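Q: What changes when zinc ion is included in the input?
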Amino acid sequence: MPKKTCPQCGFVGTTLGGFACHVRFGKCGVTEEQLFWAKVDKTSSPGGCWLWLGFLNHDGYGRVGPKRGVRSGGRAHKVIWEMIHGKVPAGMSVMHTCDVRACVNPAHLKAGTHRENMDDCYAKRRHIFGERNSHAKLTEEQVLEIRQFAGKATQREVAARYGVSQTAIAAIFNRRSWKFL
Ligand SMILES: [Zn+2]
Ligand SMILES: [Zn+2]
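A: The predicted holo structure follows.
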């Protein structure tokens, strides 16, 4: 049973329906924005990333449902960027400077054209391949972080969070890869 705690008054909903009812009729004054930020973990990532604790897409991006009259749904990092800067201009997209797809720290997000996005991606890849061989996608810091999840989260959840394959996570958990760390 999912448990949700109200960030305003501490009410604990033991069913999703009960919690939704509290938000609509509980009159504690909790706002949509408070509920939104309650789903963000600002402290556990050493890189300063704010990790989205809500639903993650299969591609590792956080996902937010639409709320009538408040926002349209979509990728969490984009929704946050738009909450601060307004609508993303046509032809641009919101990208991560930190490469952590589940990250929603506004300081790690910037809007760029698709072209810039690709250039950025290639530049980073060149960088990664330059300093490291086949472990391309993850940094040492992330691998150490991932090990902390062993036994606490499923391989699939962790894989989604970091945008890598489940096999890669299994190898990290079992220390078959990144042995030198
Ligand atoms: Zn409340
Ligand atoms: Zn980040």
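Observations recorded in class: Residues 9 and 167 are 41 Å apart (CA to CA).
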